[in-house]
Amino acid sequence: MNETIEVALGERSYPILIGTDLIGDPACYSPYIAGAQVLIVTNETVAPLYLERVRQALAGRRIETVVLPDGEQYKTLDVVGRVFDSLLAQRFARDCTLIALGGGVVGDMAGFAAACYQRGVSFIQVPTTLLAQVDSSVGGKTGVNHPLGKNMIGAFHQPRAVIADTATLDTLPDRELSAGLAEVIKYGLIRDAGFFAWLEAEMAALRAREPTALAAAIARSCRCKAEIVAADEREAGQRALLNLGHTFGHAIETGAGYGRWLHGEAVGAGMCLAADLSRRLGWLTSTDLAHACALIAAAGLPVAPPGDIATERFLELMAVDKKVQSGQLRLVLLKAIGEATITADFDPAALRATLDEGQPR
Ligand SMILES: NC(=O)c1ccc[n+]([C@@H]2O[C@H](COP(=O)([O-])OP(=O)(O)OC[C@H]3O[C@@H](n4cnc5c(N)ncnc54)[C@H](O)[C@@H]3O)[C@@H](O)[C@H]2O)c1
Ligand SMILES: O=C(O)C(=O)C[C@@H](O)[C@H](O)[C@H](O)COP(=O)(O)O
Ligand SMILES: [Zn+2]
């Protein structure tokens, strides 16, 4: 069953269309494309799978394509430059539209190119991974990595529409499905204990790609993200809760070398570390900690960081975080399953103990 969820941002409001067989449907795109020039940004894995269907849905317009290399290690300023090269070489004007066809890496880069080209042009997100359908395609965070820090160069730029065709998940590798489940579990942990309990009951169905369960998880995740983004578009307050596990996770991704740990895997382990620290501070019960880590493990995700990032190095990497204020690290921590808070008020010794012990208990 198809469903539409609105991201309510005044004149920048947009729909998230969720359903099957949407990417080849011209009616999904037409209302959101003003000019005749369209640039599809995709990658070398997704292009052979889905590019032709998108091209056909856009017939009648001038369509160009940029096919980027595949991988987190290519989410760089240098590679995004190829999108600008193409836009300029083809003389694309301000009324052009970019289409991001792929996972979160393509979405973040195409969105960033759209934010910058001629100081901002339209773009549409066509997410083809679970992670992108439940998280990265929604909310307008775009950008690239720097060797010294994850997502450190970017812009807020909202898409005109998100077209999430759940049938594209049929070709997604199991490891990537698990990575997407990390961000799904995140919504349960930060603000929806009922969803968390539902995920505990449905995790086997989700990993078996049961279509009804997957569609329900995607829609509930998007509703949750749409509400948070509508209330706090630029992360002045509660949007930071969407960063649960990410200060640890981004440190893992940067420390391990981009692409070695998937973003969702690093966030899975990062959420266990955040839960472990919350328990050490006396905010989270041992039972809730055990439930959180058990669900993350059941999703096929790691519950501990790689063994080769020493605590000092981990702390250095964690200090490169957009939530740092006046030199002080702020972390998203848990008070209960379904209740999170952002705080700088934690005992640094407890953080060290969490990192020293690595394996949450
Ligand atoms: N902007 C945001 O709000 C936000 C939110 C979460 C994550 N992110 C970013 O998103 C990125 C991770 O996104 P991701 O997990 O989608 O990774 P990804 O974009 O690297 O995609 C994962 C892999 O799946 C392949 N793929 C994509 N669709 C496929 C399909 N339908 N069938 C087969 N293979 C397919 C890709 O080519 C890639 O190899 C990270 O860079 C992360 O920082 C951004
Ligand atoms: O949309 C948000 O806000 C998020 O924090 C979603 C995260 O899952 C995502 O990984 C995001 O890219 C992290 O943003 P950052 O500002 O910490 O780089
Ligand atoms: Zn994330």
UniProtKB/TrEMBL annotation:
Per its UniProt record, what Gene3D superfamilies does this chain match?
3.40.50.1970, Dehydroquinate synthase-like - alpha domain
Q: Does the keyword Ribosomal protein apply?
A: no
Q: Which Pfam families match?
A: DHQ_synthase, DHQS_C
The alphabetical list of record keywords is:
Amino-acid biosynthesis, Aromatic amino acid biosynthesis, Cobalt, Cytoplasm, Lyase, Metal-binding, NAD, Nucleotide-binding, Zinc
Class in the EC hierarchy, top level: lyase
Domain (3-dehydroquinate synthase C-terminal) spans: 180-324
Instruction: List, in alphabetical order, the Gene Ontology terms for molecular function in this entry.
Output: 3-dehydroquinate synthase activity; metal ion binding; nucleotide binding
Q: What reaction(s) does this enzyme catalyze?
A: 7-phospho-2-dehydro-3-deoxy-D-arabino-heptonate = 3-dehydroquinate + phosphate
State where NAD(+) binds. 70-75, 104-108, 128-129, 141, 150, 168-171
* Alphabetical GO biological process terms: amino acid biosynthetic process; aromatic amino acid family biosynthetic process; chorismate biosynthetic process
Similarity section? Belongs to the sugar phosphate cyclases superfamily. Dehydroquinate synthase family.
- Name the job this protein performs: Catalyzes the conversion of 3-deoxy-D-arabino-heptulosonate 7-phosphate (DAHP) to dehydroquinate (DHQ).
Recorded protein name is 3-dehydroquinate synthase
Q: Which organism is it from?
A: Thioflavicoccus mobilis 8321
